[in-house]
Specification:
heterodimer, A: alpha+beta, 5 helices, 36% helix, B: alpha+beta, 3 helices, 41% helix, 23% strand, globular
């Protein structure tokens, strides 16, 4: 398959990824070991993104082969990416998931999310943070998007 | 992005981005006609379009009060 990202984007990514601090671990899940088209495209995109820095690690598994891990990360559809951050010996999961190929408009969100978890800065206002810190019950946000 | 920022702040918040075209059944289930469409707690609430944090918080608060 040809590259999904052109040379310019590769260059831009390697520049902005200089800002990365903690290593980011992308847990990729496909349905079966044999990849569907969208899974194939997603893992290729992840590999291209990861090739621009040594701070992004990809761990690939499938629901078929590793149901336990999928369950642990509450993966219920594929292709799925759990964006986690390595903090010393522990892998921190903020509950951030991408389902489907993070391409088009969502590519930027994907890159910004990697930067955010790595730097540990979320940039929200004080009032918003106070509300979130005060939550007692689980909140599940599911954002539907389209690539264009 | 807002949903992910919120997930990062609070352990109680999980956020997922779903490519609507790749998951048509799920999109139909929650009547997704335009994007972005934010579904809160599996259909208990929803926000259409890109909104400021204050608006999303208001809708979350409404859902939790139910």
């Amino acid at each position: 398959m040809a590259n999904l990202l052109n040379e310019d984007i590769h260059k831009q990514l390697s520049e902005i990824f200089h800002e990365l601090e903690k290593p980011v671990v992308l847990l990729f899940f496909s349905d079966k070991k044999e990849l569907c088209d969208n899974c194939e495209q997603t893992i290729q995109l992840l590999k291209e993104v990861a090739s621009t820095t040594d701070k992004i690690i990809i761990k690939q598994s499938s629901l078929e082969e590793d149901a336990k891990t999928a369950e642990k990360y509450l993966i219920d559809k594929t292709p799925a990416i759990a964006v986690c951050v390595q903090d010393g010996d522990s892998l921190i999961d903020h509950g951030i998931r991408f389902y489907g190929v993070p391409s088009g408009m969502e590519f930027e969100t994907f890159i910004q999310t990697i930067l955010m978890v790595s730097k540990g800065e979320q940039g929200l206002e004080k009032e918003t943070i106070a509300f979130l810190k005060d939550l007692k019950e689980p909140v599940h946000l599911q954002v539907f998007v389209t690539p264009t | 992005m807002l949903a992910f920022q919120m997930a990062m702040v609070s352990d109680k918040v999980n956020a997922e981005m779903v490519q609507a075209r790749e998951f048509p059944e799920l999109s139909d289930q929650f009547h997704v006609h335009g994007v972005p469409h934010t579904n809160i707690n599996h259909g208990a609430g929803e926000v259409l379009g890109s909104v400021p944090a204050a608006d999303l918080i208001q809708e979350i608060a409404k859902v939790l009060k139910k």
